[in-house]
Write a structure and sequence with these properties.
CATH topology of the largest domain: Jelly Rolls
Strand content: over 45%
CATH class of the largest domain: Mainly Beta
Oligomer: single chain
Shape: elongated
Largest sheet: 5 strands, antiparallel
Structural class: mainly beta
Radius of gyration: 26 Å
Number of strands: 12
């Protein structure tokens, strides 16, 4: 038969607990391969979200509705990559804008990105985004009656 023990609240015991050196917010106690304990920073987590802009049928130089970036206050959101293609035709020239300005590495008026029937990606240095930044693709040229444009942006949320 198991013995029963009485558990009492002992505030003087709690006051005697010492926080080890190296401990802190955002750290976890772990042991290495040799069984020696150490405090390590909790690694940040990255969640990727994808937003697709799809035009079915003939592509025209028209406005495409954009997206507003949504994030929590402690998150860092970066535009990391864009993937694009057309179903048929020759090409569509475009760039990505954030709040009305070109986004570094994601095409410009003078050097746009070029969507063809071969899917391509552009992955420059990631660009940080703020809450409610408005990201939109801007079509600047067409060739060969393109149809079926798909542009997918990759946002990385770090927390």
């Amino acid at each position: 038969m198991a013995q029963k023990r009485k558990i009492e609240y002992q505030p003087e015991f709690l006051g005697s607990i010492k926080i080890p050196a190296g401990a802190g917010i955002g750290k976890v106690w772990t042991s290495n391969n040799e069984g020696i304990g150490e405090w390590l920073a909790i690694p940040s987590k990255i969640i990727r979200t994808f937003n697709a802009f799809i035009l079915q049928g003939p592509v025209e130089e028209t406005k495409i509705p954009g997206i507003n970036v949504s994030k929590e206050s402690a998150q860092i959101v970066k535009l990391a990559k864009v993937r694009y293609s057309i179903e048929s035709g020759t090409k569509v020239l475009f760039r990505l804008n954030k709040n009305g300005a070109n986004i570094t590495g994601f095409g410009t008026e003078g050097a746009p990105l070029e969507a063809t029937t071969t899917a391509a990606s552009t992955e420059p240095t990631a660009v940080e985004c703020a809450e409610n930044d408005y990201i939109v693709p801007v079509i600047s040229g067409l060739s060969g009656e393109p149809k079926g444009l798909t542009i997918t942006i990759d946002l990385q949320h770090t927390f």
